[in-house]
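Problem 12. The chain below contains 185 residues. Write out its predicted structure in token notation.
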Amino acid sequence: MAIAPATPDLARVASRVAIPVLAQHVDPVDAGPRTGFVPPEAIRAAGVWGSLVNHSEHPLPPTEVRSAVERLHALELVAVVCAGDVDVARKLAATRPAYLAVEPPELIGGKRAVSTARPEVVSGAVAAVREVSPGTRVLCGAGVHDRTDVRKALELGASGVLVASAVTLAADPRAAIEELLAGFL
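Solution.
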């Protein structure tokens, strides 16, 4: 389990929790005069574990994804690269991230999990990533809300899930997290 708070909260959260903390985004730029950018050195200084890269809400060109992953690796930080479909997952797996999360953008924040609405995307991404980068673990995201969604993602070969709205919009976030975790038992 990991958490990805907003950038201004990274250091505060990282200093107060025992689980890994991820940045929501990192830019593949050198530290220095970079107003508005988040260089990898900044998140490292905040004490985080790594960063999401290429989330559908903040996509990057493939060359920038590669640069971001290389910069994170050089700083011994973990890259969680996001891809919207199997073809993009295959291409981005070549960057050799620790994790690749497959999340069709049209299902993000929705009521239907990709693992049930489009299971071929999950199983296809798992196969494609294993072929290109066997050490990369695949996460399933988009519409994951409960233990059934988690179990289905695991059955399809995913190593875990990536969620946001299922927890952040829940009336009882703790109960929502416990429900999701039950899918791993």
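Discussion. The longest strand covers residues 78-83. Students who got a different answer should revisit the alignment rule from Section 12.3.
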